[in-house]
Specification:
Elements: E1 2-10, H1 17-24, E2 28-37, E3 43-50, H2 53-61, E4 67-73, E5 79-85, H3 89-99, E6 104-113, E7 118-125, H4 127-137, E8 141-150, H5 157-160, H6 164-175, H7 187-194, H8 198-216
Antiparallel strand pairs: 1-7, 1-8, 2-3, 2-6, 3-5, 4-5, 6-7
Helix pairs in contact: 6-8, 7-8
């Protein structure tokens, strides 16, 4: 089994025209928590959003021909909304590709950009199936591969989601004592080991640490003092 991570951007700049209407309200789609297909051709998607829930409600209620129903979990942080709707042709085709191969998607699917829309997807499956799925996806969108490596179920998810370069940086930092107390190496030392500049090392480590912290905190945790 193999794991692949890639960023997908539809050729038309959005997955569904509803996204462009949502953008106009100032609401950002942060990630997709889950996705379920319904026999009547509609799809149920659970999104994490950032923005005005009231503005999003008005947007959804103004499209009765597209939106079947929705539900908002206001108490969640970030806000979570479940929407059942009829997808446009492009999204329907992409979803059909996603269902056509023996590959599993690892949720959440993160939005890395809004306009044009781009999402980061992590998939696990046989290498031939992954290759076929990406080849078909490229007919409808651009695909930028971030990493491909053997899948090990025992590997922590947050570590598996790091790029190959980030994994190399982290391993080097641990091996050389960057995380020991007191610290035994510097960004400059790591840069020399990794053949890059110190600022690049710092950027990698900040992203790695952000991924680790996000994986440790329970859903809905906040940073406010109590």
């Amino acid at each position: 089994m193999w794991e692949v991570s890639y960023v997908m951007t539809p050729n038309q700049g959005y997955f569904d025209r509803a996204e462009t209407i949502i953008w106009e309200t100032g609401v950002r789609l942060e990630s997709i928590r889950s996705m379920e297909f319904v026999a009547d051709g509609s799809v149920v998607i659970v999104y994490e959003i950032d923005g005005s829930v009231d503005a999003l409600r008005r947007c959804l209620e103004n499209a009765p021909e597209k939106v079947v129903d929705y539900a908002v979990a206001r108490d969640a942080d970030p806000v979570v909304i479940q929407i059942r709707f009829y997808p446009d042709e492009t999204l329907t085709q992409l979803l059909s590709v996603q269902r056509s191969f023996g590959v599993s998607v690892r949720f959440p699917i993160r939005y890395v950009r809004q306009d044009p829309a781009s999402v980061e997807i992590v998939e696990v499956g046989p290498r031939t199936e992954l290759n076929s799925r990406i080849r078909e996806t490229r007919k409808l969108s651009s695909v930028y591969i971030e990493h491909v490596h053997p899948y090990h179920p025992s590997t922590p998810r947050w570590f598996a989601q790091l790029t190959d370069r980030q994994q190399e940086v982290l391993r080097t930092a641990v091996r050389t004592g960057y995380y020991r107390v007191p610290r035994e190496t510097t960004h400059e030392d790591l840069a020399a080991e990794l053949d890059c500049c110190a600022s690049t090392v710092g950027q990698h480590l900040r992203r790695i640490e952000a991924e680790l912290v996000a994986s440790i905190l329970p859903t809905g945790s906040s940073t406010g003092a109590t």
